[in-house]
Structures are given as C-alpha cells and as structure tokens.
Amino acid sequence: MQNSKIPTLRIGDLEVNPPIVQGGMGVRISKANLAAAVANEGCVGVVATVGLGRFEDHPGSEFVRVNEEALRQELCKAKSMTDGIIGVNVMVALSNYENLARTAAEEGVDLIISGAGLPLDLPKFARGTSTKLIPIVCSARALHIIYRKWKTRYNKTPDAVVVEGPKAGGHLGFRYEELLSGESPSLDEMLSEVIEAANSYDPPVPVIAAGGIFDGQDIARVLKLGASGVQMATRFVCTNECDVHENFKQAYLNAREEDIAIIKSPVGMPGRVLNNEFVAKIKRGETVPFKCSYKCLRTCDPKTAPYCIAKVLVNAAEGNFDEAFAFSGENSYRCNEIVPVKQLIDQLTEETAYHLSKDTE
Question: What structural domains and CATH numbers belong to the chain?
Fold first, then answer.
C-alpha cells in the first residue's frame, strides 16, 4: 500500500513506494530472500549477479554456466516469494557481463542496474523485453555519453539513472587518493549536476541517489534536492532476511567509525571495507598466492594481483573472516541491531515523511 506522505518513484510503468531501491551486494549477500522481502514492502528488491554460483568448486571453463544457472535459480526463487519489483545488479567489469545481462532479461526481471564501467551496450542484451535499464554514473558527462550512445545505436534511453557518491561501499568510481583526502565531490554536488542533465532530456530521466543514504533524514534531503528515489545497501545487511552469513552481519554490528577503511583492490579500483587483520595484512604488502582459472573481472590481472578478490568475497559471505574482509558503506558502523526488512522499511518511511513535512509546517 502506497504512502501518500512521500513521493512515488516512477520508472516507466513501475511504481515504487516507498521510493527505495535495495542496492545489489555481491558476492552472495543480496540474493532472493532479501530481494523478495524488500519487494514485498513496495520497494525494489535487487539480486546481485556477481559470483552467485559456486564457481570456486568448478573448473574455469564452467564459470559462465555455473553463474548463469545460479542467477536463473535466484530469480525464480525471488518471483515465487513476491509479486513486487525485482531487479538485478550487473557489473560492466565482469567477464561474463553480457551473459548475465541477457539471462536476467530472458528471465523477465523488472529492471537491470549496471555500473562499474559504462554500460554502453546494455540495451542490446535486453532487446525485445520490457526490462527497465538503469545505468550507474558519477557525473553528468557519463550520463550524456550513455544517453547519446543508447539513443543513436539502439533507439533507447535510460529508464532511470543511479548517481553513486563517495560514501558507498564496495568498489568505488573515484581515485584512491581523493577518497583518502576527502577531495572527492559530495553526493549532493554530484546530484545537482546529474539532475540538471537528466531534466534536460525529453522525457526527463528519474535520478536515484546512492552512497551514504542511511536514514529517513538522508532520504528526505536528496528528495528535496530533486532526486526521485534512493538506493540503499548497507542498511539491508543487518536484516533478518539478508542472505549472508551471520558473521558478516556481526562484523557490521561490531564496527566502530574508525574501522571503516579504503583499500586498493586488485581490480584496479579503490574499495571501502571494514578493517580487520586481513586488511592490515594486505596493507602491509603481504600477498595470498592463488591460481586463477576463470578471470571473473576483466580489469584483474591474476599475474600481478596480491590476492584473489573473488575468493576473499566468497570467504566473507561464508563468514570466514580470517581470510576475508567485508565491503561496507561509510555509515555501516551506525548499524546496531538486526531487524526484519518490514520494520526497517516502516522506520525509513516514517522518518522520511517526518523530515519532508518539516519544511511545510
């Protein structure tokens, strides 16, 4: 049931109220259970496609097939649990990017969110379907490039766009040095220029704010700036329905503000993680030898990588933090309890409505 006190996010013929998109969290963190629970509350539930299948148990030649089958299974499971909106997150940097995007569209997923690179050919993979396509960008320039390419080559325009700021978790689209120094542009600054660009199109493209959105006050702030909705990931880790191991959730609950760290990932991008002994080890320059038979990320060079990021994230999802770290947003230390998804969404809705109403009183 829609809440009339807060705006509805409209993505084509899809209506999202509360206007919240659950962020895709790989490897094996946001799967069917979490996505369906979020969708059942009127929001968008998202399955992260990266590393869904147990590729580590199969020869490298099986990498594509194993992950494709796992994606089909997760989407089938999610659909059996909800009539709400289900999306997927597919990273452009994945070596099996095209296969995963095509598979999601074939399975009739409601929308595909795609970042970690410019998804210039995404419309080709969803051609002939009603799947909505949503790129992730860090600038108006990136949106303009995607818009022109899609329009010229595929006669398609983005159904919405996600603007991801520097406070997000996981791999980030900023330089390592600017994240450490705090010189990267703020989400609010990025939103301003992207919203201006998005509103220049006919029809305008809905803008979804992401990165550091933690509570209803944050949601109200970006809605007042002109965003049509938000994407949130960190808050959904500490829910009963999140598919990840309890040790992963506990790492969030145990985290202090000073435990949030920026690392250089083997894939050539900075990443935000929770500090632990494994992080300290890699920061000291220690390596974890490995043999790669699948090359899951196009930007990773197994010959020079100090450790396998895929294996590290698998370990984290399974709760083995002796050989792993947890990706997290900048505000993960503020998580202090594990709650049902419904309770979280109800709280966010109430907070958002309150902070939106303050300006009209």
Answer: 9-244+332-354 (3.20.20.70), 249-323 (no CATH)
